[in-house]
Specification:
This protein has about 230 residues and is mostly helical. It has one domain. It is built from seven helices and no strands.
Length: about 230
């Protein structure tokens, strides 16, 4: 077992638990629909968290390829921020949706405004952490599109967290999901795509040098002579 395979196990477990919380919350929402009025706003944020959790698997793979090509060892300065990043995502996924029937909850939107909105705090912290992580671990410039998107998404999340009017909350959730889909398809790490800094192109095999010696051509008109034919 190589080092990356061992160190990625705790991170994968945290990501998997976050996905489990999101899916369990969605199932609980459907099953309790006769007792709890369903609203789409928390489900939009749930979809965003699920996409974030999936993206991070691609981030880990890109880092693995990059570190192998550059000969970088997995020390705490590299591994610690990755673990902290996944913990923030798990905390947000766990706070977003109720995973069991709560007697004092009759509307999913009310539950979101009271409890689920707290999930946006670790989401903001995750984007703040992503900015220095990109520069430290992937050599991404400070003024890069990936970092700009993190800044914009922090502002959108802050609006969704502070807003009390449903229109502003809905606009923030939809805009964040739209930016996230764009980033996951064309900017951030994604399946089947590795940035140029991760690519390792093997050096083509050297071709043998051409020799300047050319053997003289055989004369087809000269008859063949048997060796030592003049001897008895």
């Amino acid at each position: 077992m190589v080092e990356f395979q061992l160190l990625s196990v705790p991170i994968g477990l945290i990501l998997g638990l976050g996905m489990t919380r999101i899916m369990t919350g969605a199932i609980t929402t459907v099953r309790n629909r006769e007792h709890v009025r369903v609203h789409w706003l928390p489900l939009v944020w749930a979809a965003s968290f699920m996409i974030q959790l999936l993206i991070f698997f691609c981030v880990l793979w890109d880092l693995k390829v990059n570190f192998e090509n550059a000969g970088i060892e997995w020390t705490w300065s590299y591994y610690g921020p990755q673990v902290l990043h996944t913990i923030f995502m798990f905390l947000g996924a766990g706070l977003l949706l109720p995973v069991s029937r709560e007697s004092n909850t009759d509307c999913l939107l009310k539950d979101f405004n009271k409890h689920g909105k707290l999930a946006l705090i670790p989401l903001i912290a995750m984007h703040f952490l992503a900015w220095p992580m990109n520069m430290h671990m992937s050599n991404v410039p400070l003024f890069d599109k990936a970092n700009y998107l993190n800044f914009v998404m922090i502002a959108v999340i802050a609006v969704g967290f502070k807003a009390s009017r449903l229109n502003w909350q809905a606009a923030a959730a939809i805009i964040y999901l739209s930016i996230l889909i764009y980033a996951s398809l064309s900017v951030w790490s994604r399946p089947g795509h590795i940035e140029d800094i991760f690519m390792h192109k093997p050096i083509p095999a050297s071709q043998p040098e051409k020799s300047s010696y050319h053997p003289p051509p055989l004369n087809p008109e000269e008859p063949y002579q048997k060796p030592f034919a003049d001897r008895v």
